[in-house]
Amino acid sequence: MAGATVATDVWPGALYAILMPMTPVIAAARIEEWGQHVARPGVKPHLATLRMLSDCLVTGDVLPTNPACAVRGCRPLVKTGRPPVLAAEDARTFVDRIDANTMAGLRDRALVCSFARAAV
């Protein structure tokens, strides 16, 4: 039991020592560094995690303010242009592969055909 009290006594102090010097600039630098290793869509969940962790620490009076609140994530990459379209033979092959012997198959065929007509 003595080891458990030592661990619980040391852990909050060590966490405070690690997180206390965190400022919005340092949090932004960490997110920017993470963005160099991960694709753009993967940075946003990590920023959200950092924000939630900091928010919990602010709520628990461990940190005075949330340093990750002011950090903005990277902009999403938006591609412009028309979406790719299936050729008529490919669409026919796709519809023919759906099993029409079950209710789910009939439903799926009807949905695919109605979406194909709406897209034209």
Sequence-ordered SSE layout with sheet pairings:
Blueprint: H1 2-19, H2 24-37, H3 40-59, H4 88-96, H5 103-119
Helix pairs in contact: 2-3
List keywords for this structure.
mainly alpha; elongated; 0% strand; 65% helix; disordered N terminus; single chain; 2 domains; 120 residues; 5 helices
Describe the structure.
The chain is mainly alpha-helical and 120 residues long. It folds into 2 domains: 68 residues, no CATH class; 32 residues, no CATH class. It is built from 5 helices and no strands. Helix 2 runs antiparallel to helix 3. The radius of gyration is 26 Å and the shape is elongated. The N terminus is likely disordered.
Described by the principal axes of the CA atoms, the overall outline is elongated
Structural class: mainly alpha
Number of H/I helices: 5
The low-pLDDT segments are 1-8
The rounded Rg comes to: 26 Å
Overall pLDDT: 76
Helical amount: 55-70%
Q: How far is the first residue's CA from the last residue's CA?
A: 71 Å
The proportion of residues in beta strands is under 5%
Number of strands: 0
The largest sheet, given as strand count, sense and whether it forms a barrel, is: none
